Amino acid sequence: MKRLSEERTKILFEKLSKYIGANIRHLIDRPDGTYCFREKKDRVYYVSEKLLGLAQTAGPGHLISAGTCFGKFTKSNKFILHITALNYIVPYSKHKIWLKSSAEQQFLYGHHVLKSGLGRITENTSKHQGVVVLSMSDLPLGFGTTAKSTADCKHSDPLSTVCFHQADVGEYIRAEESLL
User: Do 80 and 51 have their domain in common?
Assistant: First the structure.
């Protein structure tokens, strides 16, 4: 596993800051140790330095991955955040959307969030802001990007889109079909 280049580190941090802002430093310096981002075959892994030291004893051809996959870089050098990063993003996210129970299933099927399914939204959320999508019982469902600001959501049509789907926990089930 190799260190990210300066350019790729900047792209990764810009993507993460869209969701958690300046709280990226809390991902790196944690009470349980120091963590870092490493890359293997265009995939970015979030791994503790202690585990990284142990992983370096294995040869490069013998190690598939170490840590948690946060996402991958595309051929055009854009970063796509995977759902496996959700548990690390939720505690530090500044902007959140809560869904009504009637809209949870639609979101888990990969659909965008409509105004009629919106339960709550964090105040002062701007348009095109990265948000964590939660159920009304604070269960993380996924993440997306807002289509409207908080003020625009209050006055919009019930069938208008308020959040674009990015990833959800239902991807595991949908991806399982393609693996069979």
Answer: yes
Supply 24's token pair.
Answer: 């990226």
Distance CA 41, CA 102 (A): 39
Domain that holds residue 36: 2-84
145 contacts 166 by C-beta, under 8 angstroms = yes
Residues 51 and 104 in one domain: no
CA distance 39 to 4: 6
Q: With 80 as the cut, is the pLDDT of residue 93 above it?
A: yes
For the chain, give the percent of residues with pLDDT over 70.
Answer: 96
Q: Contact 45/65 with Cβ under 8 angstroms? A: yes
CA distances from 111 to 104, 127, 153, 165 (A): 10, 18, 18, 6
> 77 with 128, same domain?
no
Cβ–Cβ under 8 Å, residues 47 and 35 = yes
Please check the confidence at residue 165 and state whether its pLDDT lies above 50.
yes
What pLDDT sits at residue 136? Answer: 94
3-state secondary structure of 134: strand
One domain for residues 79 and 33: yes
Strands 68-73 and 33-40: unpaired
